Automatic annotation (TrEMBL):
Destroys radicals which are normally produced within the cells and which are toxic to biological systems. This is Superoxide dismutase. Mn(2+) binds at H26, H78, D166, H170. Pfam families: Sod_Fe_C (PF02777), Sod_Fe_N (PF00081). It comes from Holospora curviuscula. It catalyses: 2 superoxide + 2 H(+) = H2O2 + O2. It comes from the Bacteria.
Length: 203
């Protein structure tokens, strides 16, 4: 059975950028809901029993079992989203090193990358996610957006996630209403570059 990951911070740690209400609803209703639904589905579809979360997402995607894929992929994406954010200022600094060098080669500057991340998230139509990924095939860092529960590496295993931002309305509507731009411009200042560096090393 799958379980809800433990948040690495408290519900009020991002206020007022993300309110306690937003974080608590997002985590205990939406994220927990995906976990509960996936466990119920796996009980009814024993061919998924014993598989890891990633294996479940891949198998259900390729077998076009959309309900299982949507729930498993949303759990994966939310796990990464929570880890992509941090209230700890030291972890929000991208220190000199291989990741920063590669990022500057790909985007010019950190500021340019942030602008592209915001722009890609803003132009994503409807629900979805915006990602910073390491494209191992081309050896570049990229900003990509995905719709709904889609994952950037589900078809192309060469795209490894470093960070992600949730642009489903439930991630920001309580605090920002329909102003996704304001949400994105604020939340990028809480990106966890320590986590991104670990992801980059493990890619």
């Amino acid at each position: 059975m799958f379980s809800l990951m433990k948040l690495p911070y408290e519900f009020d740690d991002f206020a007022p950028t993300l309110s306690t209400t937003t974080l608590e609803l997002h985590y205990t209703r939406h994220h927990q809901g995906y976990v509960r639904q996936l466990n119920d589905l796996v009980l009814r579809h024993q061919e998924y029993s014993g598989l890891s979360l990633e294996e479940t997402a891949k198998k259900s995607y390729h077998q076009n079992h959309r309900t299982i894929f949507n729930n498993s992929a949303q759990i994966i994406a939310h796990d990464l989203y929570w880890k992509s954010l941090t209230p700890i200022s030291e972890r929000r600094l991208l220190k000199p090193g291989p990741l920063r060098d590669h990022l500057e080669q790909s985007f010019g500057t950190l500021e340019s990358m942030m602008e592209q991340l915001i722009s890609k998230g803003l132009t994503q139509f409807g629900s979805g996610w915006v990602w910073l990924v390491y494209n191992k095939y081309e050896n570049i860092l990229e900003i990509v957006a995905t719709s709904n529960a889609h994952l950037p590496w589900i078809e192309n295993h060469k795209k490894y996630p470093l960070l992600t931002i949730d642009v489903w309305e439930h991630a920001y509507y309580v605090d920002y209403y329909n102003q996704r731009k304001n949400y994105l411009e604020n939340i990028v200042h809480y990106l966890n570059w320590n986590f991104a560096e670990d992801q980059y090393i493990n890619a």
